[in-house]
Amino acid sequence: MVKKPVRAHVKPKVKPKPHWKAAVKPKAAAPKISKSLGASVGLRSAAKVGIGGSTDIGSLLIVMGLSFAIACFAVAVVPARSVPWRPAAIFVSERQFDLTVVGFALLATGLTLFCIKGF
Question: Structural domain boundaries of the chain?
């Protein structure tokens, strides 16, 4: 049997630290905002529009109506035999037609609001 020669671990060389220190950057002063007509109008319009860009709840109603319509269609499409929990299977089997009608009503309402709003 041939033994491999034992090799000592090589330590990395220590780099010398720089003798100079990094210059401290001066902090920038906060910009001064003057009261002018343009700044006040811009702030008012930004506050009026809001984060989402809409001021009324019409968009929220459209999105919620369409999402509930999709949920109703999703529950109505599931066959009752594939639902493992018996009370839920009974609900699905008895309410498939009702959920389909509610889904169509919500879909029609959402699309009507979408068309009226004029997006």
Answer: 49-117
Prediction pTM value: 0.50
CA-nearest of 47, 104, 46 to 70 is 104
* CB 83 within 8 Å of CB 96: no
Residues whose CB falls within 8 Å of the CB of residue 117, separated by 6 or more in sequence, listed in order: 58, 59, 62
Q: Give the integer Cα–Cα distance in Å for 50 and 112.
A: 25
Confidence at residue 45, expressed as pLDDT on a 0 to 100 scale? 45
Other C-beta atoms lying within 10 Å of the C-beta of residue 80? 15
Cβ proximity of 79 and 109 under 8 Å? no
Does residue 102 have a pLDDT over 90?
yes
User: For residues 73 and 108, is the Cβ–Cβ distance under 8 A?
Assistant: no
User: Cβ-count burial of 113 within 10 angstroms (0-12 exposed, 13-18 middle, 19+ buried)?
Assistant: middle
Phi, psi (degrees; rounded to nearest 5) at 89 = -65, -40
